[in-house]
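WARN  no MSA supplied for this record, continuing single-sequence
INFO  ligand: adenosine-5'-triphosphate
INFO  echoing inputs
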Amino acid sequence: MKLQIENRDRHGLVYDIAQIILKNGINIVSMEVIKNITYLETAALPCDKEKFIIKEIKKLSNITEVKKIALMPRYKQYQQMQIVFNTISEGVIATDKEGNAAYINKAARQLLHLPESNIIGKNVQKLVPFYGLLKKTLCTGNSFLNHEVFSRESNVHYLVNVQPVFDETGELFGCIALIRSIDAVRKIYQKLTAQPVTNFDDIIYQSDIMHLLVKNARQYAGSASTILIRGETGCGKELFARAIHNASPRLNNMFLAINCTAIPDTLLESELFGYEEGSFTGASKGGKLGLFELAGGGTLFLDEIGDISFALQAKLLRVLQEHTVRRIGATEEIPIDVRIIAATNRDLEHMMQTESFRSDLYYRLNVIPLYLPALRERREDIEVLARHLMKKAAASINTAISDIDGAAMKKLMNYDFPGNIRELGNIIERAVNIAAGSKIMAEDIVFDFNRTATGRQHAQTNEELPENLEAAMQLTERNIIGRAMRKYKTSRKLGAALGLSHTSILRKMKKYKLSFEE
Ligand SMILES: Nc1ncnc2c1ncn2[C@@H]1O[C@H](COP(=O)(O)OP(=O)(O)OP(=O)(O)O)[C@@H](O)[C@H]1O
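INFO  complex generated
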């Protein structure tokens, strides 16, 4: 029987209640007093005996209520704590100062594959792969935060926090460890770095060749084979890689992209493979997870693969052959499950002949080749892409531009786009910014000068150059006034916004044939 006995500030109540119980030859299991409430737990009683005891207690002075309860407060608290600790996804292990388990939650048991048998009170040395950290905390009283620990037995990486626990006198009496598997960390990383999902529907085209390429790529998405995407800069290699990932069974895991040119070779190696603590000067404490491991279950996009050093090529080859990685400074191989999509705009076949690209790696990468033609080789796509990019740019700067004039389109169709769709995007964005009316006009199409996007210089035709500096300045002035007119709808406001007198702005509007009615 469990009772909750409420009273009005009454001294000696515990004694009086105990007297009643003992007088009736009943065993008291426990009693708790919290402010004006006394909780009593006895051995189980027959119904009539229970009623009799309750009546007797009610007779005591200053008792306001006596009722039966299901759980004693301490046990209720313990159960609530159990629910909390067993609901959280982190593993929690508390030990005493000898390293004997005092508490282990459900997640810790699952993460560390601990036996179902009762291990409370047993030393955790043989049970957890981070006993060294626990020991250090118990000896020094120091905390260890986000330490990466590898379990050779289960081949799993964990992230572990170990913190000392002190009693009220400041004496260390144990420690508590929080454990997360790298999978959970990976999911958090994925959430934080998530980008808008790219699908095949985001690839805009009209040409037959692109139709065929998208059809093939959709099919390749289902397999786990390595893909090598070839094509000039800005022609959509990464777009295809993302679409393939998102159409693959790996879509719920990470897509990680790394540009092999952008990072110095030694850094690239540690980015890809990770490293063990202390493996080189500057290596961060606890080691570092490499991208191959981080992308586990997902896709790793190695952009500009033709730019990696010969030494790194050999290491990459090993990963592709063995499906394992060895961190820098480590001895063990870690199995990985990553789909590789590599991309390059370099002539790998020529590089093999000049021995700057390993042929064995080439054949490992080139399992499924995908050639993306340059935009100038599929001019049918220019119009649909230009319209698509115009809508995107207009929406992002919130303008009403909704069309491309025929002459402007012709100008685009006649251009070579060495920077491919990326360059087309820039040209359209620029045009949307400078266009005065609701249409992009030919004069709004301004090509980049002196670009060497594909290693070739693309000179502008004279047609695209203003006649002289004065003409260029007038063009810019007209465009700025035109843009401002979209925002300021009276000549007074327009003049004020541009720092010009009312008469000056009217004169300039007349000069450039601009009016608010347009
Ligand atoms: N067919 C397409 N439809 C819509 N957008 C495209 C298309 N092709 C490319 N793009 C856009 O053009 C830009 C460049 O594409 P992406 O980054 O995929 O090119 P890349 O070949 O990987 O370039 P790089 O070799 O320079 O890394 C991106 O903003 C991409 O969304």
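Confidence is low (pLDDT under 50) at residues 449-463.
INFO  checksum written, moving to next record
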